[in-house]
Amino acid sequence: MGKRNKSWVQLLVGLLAVMLIVSACGQAPAGPAEGNNNQGSEGGGQSEPTEQAGEPHPLEGKRVALIMQFNQGTFSAQYVEGVTEQIEKFGGEVSVFDSRNDLAQMASHLDAAINQRFDGILIDHGQAEALEPGVIRAIEQDISVVVFDADIQVEGVPVLSQNDHKMAELTLEALKEDIGGEGNIVRVWVAGFAPMERRYEVYERFLSENPGITEIATFGNASNPNLDAEAQMQSILTQYPNPGDIDAVWTTWDEFAKGAARAIQASGREEIKLYGIDLSDEDLQIIQDPESPWIATAAVDPSDIGRVQARILYQLFNGDQPEASIVLDPVFVSRDQLPDHEVSTSELSEYVEGWGASEQGYLDWMKELEEAVAN
């Protein structure tokens, strides 16, 4: 190739390079401005997600199994509401398994929750013998577990409980004061439940320390407890028909209290007063009724129990290390504290100090999670 032709080729290549550079500089960019404004084209094109939209919070979308020994009565209903409310605020979902007071069925539900790969499992009541093997298997498969009111002892599994000793003490001391330290009482209780056993420990000590108080009858059945307590109480009232035969009734569960209270009220035995443990909206209405024998109880807000248990589970999800044992302190609620008009448990804090709206287990990062879900 001659020198002249070679010069023309070099010149042509140089001109083409300059044209390509000018063309590239003249194009509008892919549009950081458009992307920052999160605007798509009129043709329906999608822009990249902005930082504001962001990715879901790492703890959103958790699937939680709530496995209950029984789901009956308004206390259980409000407990489930508390669990569900808190977990939904955290962006999760809850599936409730009711075992209808069948421990074999409860163990089966636990196995099913493990096999279905739930992220977390909440256990409500139950017994260690039936549940510990399943709880251990869940932990081995990296499924977080939190227990309420069951004597389960597995490393890495927090156990939530009410202060059952305190609840028994509060109600028994009120009973003692009201009957003047002596009289005949009836106990409604059932064995086989960790909280009941703890309450009974206090009761035994109470009787030994107060020889003027005599137990004349006891009963209790966890199957259909409300109606059974009513029938059993009617039978005892027939056995002890005279004023002064029975001074007071002490019950260890609100389902027992409701049934026994109905029987006493129906019999017209106004001299007999009843003391319970636990409190729901339905229970509160009974206590507020001036015709009802149920005049006092000791309890933790059941919705709060559910919320706190859910928070402890999310602490595990987050890699935190909650205490192995979490105890919820009860408050004493008597008719004397309540207004003349009807109130619900959501309003009870206006009249009873320490009731409801517990912040226990609620950590700063949980607020950020709730805000992320809400947005």
What is the count of DSSP helices, taking H or I runs of 4+ residues?
Answer: 12
Task: Give the beta-strand count.
Answer: 12
Distance between the termini: 71 Å
| Structural class designation | alpha/beta
Pattern of helices and strands: HHEHEHEHEEHEHEHEHEHEHEEH
Within the CATH hierarchy, at the fold level, what is the topology of the largest domain? Rossmann fold
Helices and strands in order, then pairings?
Blueprint: H1 3-26, H2 32-36, E1 63-68, H3 73-89, E2 93-98, H4 103-115, E3 120-124, H5 128-140, E4 144-148, E5 159-162, H6 164-178, E6 183-188, H7 194-209, E7 213-219, H8 225-239, E8 248-251, H9 254-267, E9 273-277, H10 281-288, E10 294-299, H11 302-317, E11 325-328, E12 331-334, H12 364-374
Task: Give an overview of the whole structure.
This protein is α/β, with parallel strands linked by helices and about 375 residues long. The protein has two domains: about 65-160 and about 300-330, 3-Layer(aba) Sandwich (Rossmann fold); about 165-300, Response regulator (Rossmann fold), CATH 3.40.50. The protein is about 45% helix and about 15% strand. The protein has helices at about 5-25, 30-35, 75-90, 105-115, 130-140, 165-180, 195-210, 225-240, 255-265, 280-290, 300-315, 365-375; strands spanning about 65-70, 95-100, 120-125, 145-150, 160, 185-190, 215-220, 250, 275, 295-300, 325-330, 330-335. The strands form two sheets. Strands 2-1-3-4-5-11 form a six-stranded parallel sheet, sandwiched between helices. Strand 1 (about 65-70), helix 3 and strand 2 (about 95-100) form a beta-alpha-beta unit. Helix 3 packs parallel to helix 11 (about 300-315) and helix 8 (about 225-240) crosses helix 9 (about 255-265). It is globular, with a radius of gyration of 32 Å. The chain starts with a helix and ends with a helix. Mean pLDDT is about 90; it is low at about 1-10 and about 10-50.
